[in-house]
Amino acid sequence: MTAPVTIIGGDQTRPDSDSLGTLEVPADVYWGIHTARALENFPITRRPISVYPDLIRALARVKQAAARANREIGTLSAEKADIIDRVCEEIAAGKLHDQFVVGVIQGGAGTSTNMNANEVIANRGLELMGHERGDYRWLHPLDDVNRGQSTNDVYPTAVKLSVIFGLRRLLAEHSLLADAFARKGVEFSDIVKVGRTQLQDAVPMTLGQEFSGFAHTLMEDHDRLAETIPLLSEINLGATAIGTGITAHPQYAEAVCRHLADVAGIEAVTAKDLIEATSDVGVFMSVSGTLKRAAVKLSKICNDLRLLSSGPQSGLGEIFLPARQAGSSIMPGKVNPVIPEVVNQIAFSIVGADATVTAAAEAGQLQLNAFEPVIAHSILQSLAWLTNGCRTLRVNCIDGITANVQRLAAEMETSVSVVTALTPYIGYAASAALAHTALTSTASIADLVVENGYMTEEEVRRVLRPERLSGLVPTTGVIPIIRPSSTSGSAEPAGG
């Protein structure tokens, strides 16, 4: 029994058929009945797969490699293989992306995405061959474009490849952001400030050290993200439905892997166990978790930037972020840290996306995980957002940060935190007593040390030099401690 005829699109249509019946599809599109059914079935996100250009390019590269492999082993004519190859090259170059219209979230383990690609490639190929779209006698979306393939090996391979493309772009932006922080570390290298633990004054450091720390934490995440690319390069093309390779030529898996490595520019390797590789999505959990780590750590840095720039009068006010926009519809002159705030929100989204990937990975059954579309959507969105976030944070914020030198100098002049540097010389008890006195009076630590006879003025100045306070010139060796009861003599600081 055939399904009733349904018209999808405008007045000009062409008929298309599948095992369920016949539909009329718009005459001016390159997709066909399988895509049309997906449009009816999955009006969920209102976001087509083309919102992820990397996925479309990856699909094209997979289909291109398959055509080349099939031609090589003799399972597809040279004419058909060459036409498919030519169309895939067009798609990889950015053409026809508007024809990839199925929703990013879909049932069927990605079948609608695979069929969308098959139909677009077939119909564009027919056009190049001088035939009408939909006249599949000359080039068929399943028998030719999908030769030796299944959604279950095409889709996960395309998703892995698209994630690699996205990771490369993220790594480039991530590296530029780390460099921007490192440059600020150099710029602020001689500006001493109070370091804080648990939001309380701790010990002195330089503003440059603070920004250099931001740079190094980003560099660590850069390395962790890069380590996931080889994991993603293991593919299951040739597995077909469940990993047994049914319908694929015995030489196909090796050939298609080799051709994919060539056309996509990756170190592709065929999984040793195609049954396992077809059902396992552990690599996506690894990538998602690493993205979450990078996003969370970047968000923490943005928290610090918001704290350090808070005020400008009643907060810390140690740095100035570039003023990007008026911050209030009611408070004149208010400027908010909008760039760090948007990066915070990107991180929140990536944390949620990682939870989605985890749930989807757990929900797979037996020989296939049917929930790879939401895994793909979650990871590709996280990649795109984090890449954009790194860029806007660098260009619209980090590059324009300046230090509030006057405020930092004033803080250091009255800061009790320097007392920690004196404990090796006068002991913890004396230092604590002086800190208490300084906090309850207007006296400085340096003056109190001299007044109490613990050290001479020259010795205090030497110990409290900025480069020593910040650890740039470390103190080494045994340091004699002057006890509170002793007021004669002085301690000679070890080191320069």
Unreliable stretches: 1-7, 484-496
User: What is the gyration radius calculated from CA atoms?
Assistant: 32 Å
| Helix percentage range | 55-70%
According to CATH, what is the class of the largest domain? Answer: Mainly Alpha
Mean pLDDT: 90
Main β sheet profile:
2 strands, antiparallel
Compute the separation of the termini in Å: 93 Å
Number of domains: 3
Overall shape: elongated
Give the SSE string: EEHHHHHHEEHHEHEHHEHHEHHHHHH
Q: In the CATH hierarchy, what is the superfamily of the largest domain?
A: Fumarase/aspartase (Central domain)
Count of helical stretches: 19
Number of strands: 8
**Largest beta sheet: strand ordering:** 1-2
As for the CATH topology of the largest domain, it is: Fumarase C, Chain A, domain 2
Regarding quaternary structure, what we see is single chain
Element layout with pairings:
Elements: E1 13-18, E2 21-26, H1 33-41, H2 53-73, H3 78-92, H4 111-129, H5 141-145, H6 151-187, E3 192-197, E4 200-206, H7 207-226, H8 228-232, E5 234-235, H9 252-264, E6 269-270, H10 274-279, H11 282-308, E7 319-320, H12 338-362, H13 372-396, E8 402-403, H14 405-414, H15 419-426, H16 428-439, H17 445-451, H18 457-463, H19 466-469
Parallel strand pairs: 5-6
Antiparallel strand pairs: 1-2, 3-4, 7-8
Helix pairs in contact: 2-3, 2-6, 2-9, 3-4, 4-6, 6-7, 6-13, 7-11, 11-12, 11-13, 12-13, 15-16
Q: How is this structure best described in words?
A:
The chain is mainly alpha-helical and 496 residues long. 55% of the residues lie in helices and 7% in strands. The chain has 19 helices and eight strands. The protein has helices spanning 33-41, 53-73, 78-92, 111-129, 141-145, 151-187, 207-226, 228-232, 252-264, 274-279, 282-308, 338-362, 372-396, 405-414, 419-426, 428-439, 445-451, 457-463, 466-469; strands spanning 13-18, 21-26, 192-197, 200-206, 234-235, 269-270, 319-320, 402-403. The strands form four sheets. The protein has a two-stranded antiparallel ribbon. A two-stranded antiparallel ribbon has the order 3-4. A two-stranded parallel ribbon has the order 5-6. α7 (207-226) runs antiparallel to α11 and α11 packs antiparallel against α12. The longest helix is centred in the middle third of the chain and has 37 residues, at 151-187. The N and C termini lie far apart (93 Å).
